[in-house]
Amino acid sequence: MALGFSGMAIMGVLFFLTARFRRACAPFGIDIIYYFHRYMAVFAFVLIFLHYLIIRINNVEALGTSNPMQASWYMTAGRVSLTLLTLLLITSLWRKPLCIHYDEWRMLHIGLAVAVFLLSLGHIEGVGYYIHAPAKHWLWSGYTLFWVLLIVYIRLIKPWQMHNKPYRVMERRQEHGNSWTLSLEADGHEGMRFKPGQFAWLTLRASPWHVKEHPFSISSSATHPERLEFTIKELGDFTRTIKQTQVGEIAYLDGPYGVFSVDQYPAASGFVFVAGGVGAAPIVSMLRTLADRHEQRPLHFIYGNKHWDNVIFREELESLKERLNLHLTHVLAEPPPDWKGESGLITTKLLKKILPDNTQKYEYFLCGPKPMSDVVQQGLHTLQVPLGQLHFELFDMV
Question: How many C-beta neighbours within 10 Å does residue 356 have?
């Protein structure tokens, strides 16, 4: 019984974690919150499954018949809840191998989570044995009311707030490497103040109540909160439709989020940025902002791509070198015959060659494919860069 109640309590916490309260997320970064959410969901499932398994082995009479036509409604609710929780985990952990579209998965995930939670509450209330005492009954009643109100806030009130602060697509321009930049302007409000490097959830061609939102880094300068830009590469189901966006369309944003920003480290002696592909978007936001602020601290940007034609922002990066104390290094995995720059992968040897000797003086920002990020992290560790000076985000949602 203790395992069951513990699992149920954790499920309630999981709802809170996905509410995206900025103050709760700020110390950790919302990417860490979402990873914690995933692991805690697995932990809750283990507890609840053990709750069922122990009773199945040690007190099978308490379960009664499994026939829903004959069993007590609350026992059936418990069985159905466990079944749906299993389905929820399978579809979440193996969404891509199962070829489930992201938008469809989100709707399924929300529906299953709410059903699991409500059926579990019904099961606890129906069994009743451990909440007969008035104090326990009021505790679980208050607990239920709190989470119901939280669901109402997440799915009704918050979308309503987004709906009252729309954005309009003012420009759609093609970038190198099958990428597109959307420029959004606040429609009837002052816009969104953000730190360079942060991201927001973007909703296009749908109302905020439809839960068709996707997280993207803001690539524009934080000195212009009234007009935001998102640079998006064609990688997934939704991103491949960005090129169909029409100027004048209405968009909705939920943000900003994230702690991946130079503004978190105002006393740093300088910054090192390492990016791959479209992972340059939040870094370009930081560079643009630093340029607008007339920043003079030393900056190093190591930018890895497969081909020269894939290098997003390459013309602007050259112009930013004139406004910043910026050392820019392009690394191409498959360079053209006349290439005179760095080639191959970003390895420890390459980092040691490019970076200055005083590596421990800088704050390091990594953004790109996970294999690249893992190799760079290991390389910087070899160069004795303290772990607390490495900053990266872990999203893979598109």
Answer: 12
> Final residue of a domain: which of 236, 257, 278?
257
Task: Let me know whether 299 and 384 are in one domain.
Answer: yes
50 and 190 share a domain?
A: no
Give the containing element (helix H, strand E) for 97: none
CA 357 → CA 170, 351, 360, distances in Å? 45, 11, 9
pLDDT at res. 101: 83
Which CATH number is 382's domain given? Answer: 3.40.50.80
Tens-place pLDDT, residues 227-276: 999 999 988 778 888 999 999 999 999 989 888 999 999 999 999 999 99
Per-residue pLDDT reduced to its tens digit, 104-142: 888 899 889 889 988 988 888 888 776 677 777 777 778
Each residue of 9-34: pLDDT tens digit? 888 888 788 778 777 777 777 778 88
Query: Do residues 197 and 82 both lie within one domain?
Result: no
DSSP string, 242-256: GGGPPTT-EEEEEEE
Q: What DSSP element (H or E) covers 285?
A: helix 280-292
**Angstrom distance (rounded) from CA 144 to CA 331:** 54
- Parallel, antiparallel, or unpaired: how do β-strands 213-217 and 199-204 relate? antiparallel
Residue 345 forms part of a structural domain: yes
140, 184 contact by CB (below 8 A):
no
What average pLDDT score do residues 322-336 get? 94
Looking at the fold, whether 171 and 141 belong to one and the same domain comes out as: no
**Last residue of one domain, picked from the residues 109, 140, 163:** 163
Q: Which domain holds residue 123?
A: 2-163
Are 288 and 261 in contact by the 8 Å Cβ rule? The answer is no
Q: What is the pLDDT of residues 276-288, one digit of tens each?
A: 989 999 999 999 9
Cβ pair 290, 158 in contact under 8 A: no
Indicate the pTM of the whole model: 0.83
Residues 7 and 86 in one domain: yes
Structure tokens at 321: 């070198």
CA 368 to chain centre: 14
